[in-house]
Amino acid sequence: MRQCMGCREMKSKKELLRILRTVDGEIVLDVTGRKNGRGAYLCRDTQCLKKAMKNKGLERSLKAAIPEEIYEKLAKELDAIEQQ
User: Fold this and answer.
1) How far is 4 from 29, CA to CA, in rounded Å?
2) Does pTM surpass 0.85?
3) Which residue in 54, 61, 74, 81 is deepest, having the highest Cβ count within 10 Å?
4) What domains, with CATH codes, occur in the chain?
5) pLDDT tens per residue, range 3-43
6) What does the alpha-carbon distance between residue 64 and residue 73 come to, in Å, rounded to a whole number?
7) Are 41 and 31 in contact (CB under 8 A)?
């Protein structure tokens, strides 16, 4: 079980998306859930991303400041996943 950084609900790992901070400090969406780095989880919902942006849940979990461009990129990737 993992906790969504937006809605704070506990869900199984397969229901959530993993946001990853790589060793280089880059913030990416880890579709496989197996890449190396520090991870945080979000529901497959743009509302949870907005909540995580507001309460800075991803920044606390990843222990890094997240620029606005990264949030925009994550929002686009989440939209693409929601439409599938």
Assistant:
1) 14
2) yes
3) 74
4) 2-83 (3.30.1230.10)
5) 999 999 999 999 999 999 999 999 998 988 899 999 999 99
6) 17
7) no
